Amino acid sequence: MQDKRFYSILISDTSITKLDDRVFSFISFEKFRLEQNFNLSLNRIDRNFLRFSSAILTEFTALNAGTFAENQDDDHSDGSIFEAFDGFVRLRSMSIAYFKLTRIPRSSLGRNELPSLKKLFLNDNGIEYLGDYSFYRLPHLEWLSLSFNKIRLINKYTFSFEKASNRVLRLELWFNQLNSQSFEKGAFLNAKRPLKLELYHNSLTYLPKEVFKEVLDADNLTSISVKGNPIECDCRMKWLLVDSDKYCDRVNDLICSDGLFLWNKTEDELNTRCNQVSKDPKYQFHFVTNGVSQSHNSLFSVLQHLKTNIIHVFR
């Protein structure tokens, strides 16, 4: 049977509950769009449903704008939807939103190279987990959006790529559940490319030097934006101020809790702030060992003192 080729298809506001591998037999599309099919979950889309489009598909969009699909209350996607696009060499853009795609498994987009994919949008899916090497074989990716999810941890292999690139990757992590302890040392380094890292509206109180200094120093084109975070301008941020000539134009929206920019502060002001915090009882860590109660002004000093003999720690 001769393959029938179409430029695009839109499937919208239907009551379909699944897409199996027979629906589009011998039919191919350059652009495929699903919108507001609230009875359809990602788990009910067969991995071969677009197999006849593998040579020509350039855009794929699936979204249920405004709500999760009604049948998804107990139907969280395991991320297998990405297997449906293995070998799609012309795919340039993929957008999946408002599905319960809570996990991006290890190597989800790392099995077969997608050489043309430049834009990947996975917003508003309730994503909690990003597996290692999830985006590993996307050599020409330029825009990755993971905003409005529930991401809490970024490890050193989360954004690892197989091939280095000189292209700037825009990496959006707006409105997640990230804080200053969410980033493993080495996070972002394995991207092997300059980053435009957007961390808007999370819960970062400072930028850990051991994480972000090496990211910024790895490439002069890398920039970081922290708009909407409750930044505390204390001694933990001094590493940026000391080299303000180097970082001022590349770390954006650094507004302190008093409404002033970090760059308008002095080193003495940051040190003073740390001294005040260290004396504040609400920042004291108390522990009991061998029947003796002691206090420290940082959890690190508690661990240094107790080493492996921790009996009880509470704040």
Structural description of this entry:
This protein has 5 helices and 15 strands. The protein is elongated. Among the domains are: 1-88, no CATH class; 280-315, no CATH class. It has 315 residues and is α/β, with parallel strands linked by helices. The strands form 3 sheets. A 10-stranded parallel beta sheet has the order 1-2-3-4-6-8-9-10-11-12, with no helix packed on it. Strand 10 (195-198), helix 1 and strand 11 (223-225) form a beta-alpha-beta unit. The protein has helices at 209-218, 238-242, 244-247, 267-279, 299-306, and strands at residues 4-12, 27-35, 59-63, 93-97, 103-104, 119-121, 129-130, 143-145, 169-172, 195-198, 223-225, 251-252, 285-289, 292-296, 313-314.
What attributes does this structure have?
single chain, 315 residues, alpha/beta, 10-stranded parallel beta sheet, 13% helix, 20% strand, disordered C terminus, LRR_dom_sf, repeat, Leu-rich_rpt, Leu-rich_rpt_typical-subtyp, leucine-rich repeat
Tell me the layout of helices and strands.
Blueprint: E1 4-12, E2 27-35, E3 59-63, E4 93-97, E5 103-104, E6 119-121, E7 129-130, E8 143-145, E9 169-172, E10 195-198, H1 209-218, E11 223-225, H2 238-242, H3 244-247, E12 251-252, H4 267-279, E13 285-289, E14 292-296, H5 299-306, E15 313-314
Parallel strand pairs: 1-2, 2-3, 3-4, 4-6, 5-7, 6-8, 8-9, 9-10, 10-11, 11-12
Antiparallel strand pairs: 13-14, 13-15
Radius of gyration: 24 Å
Cα separation of the termini: 71 Å
- Unreliable sequence segments: 68-72, 279-315
Q: Tell me the helix content.
A: 10-25%
What is the helix/strand order? EEEEEEEEEEHEHHEHEEHE
Largest sheet: 10 strands, parallel
The order of strands across the largest sheet is 1-2-3-4-6-8-9-10-11-12
**Count of helix runs:** 5
Shape: elongated
DSSP E strands, number: 15
Strand content: 15-25%
What class do helices, strands and sheet pairing give?
Answer: alpha/beta
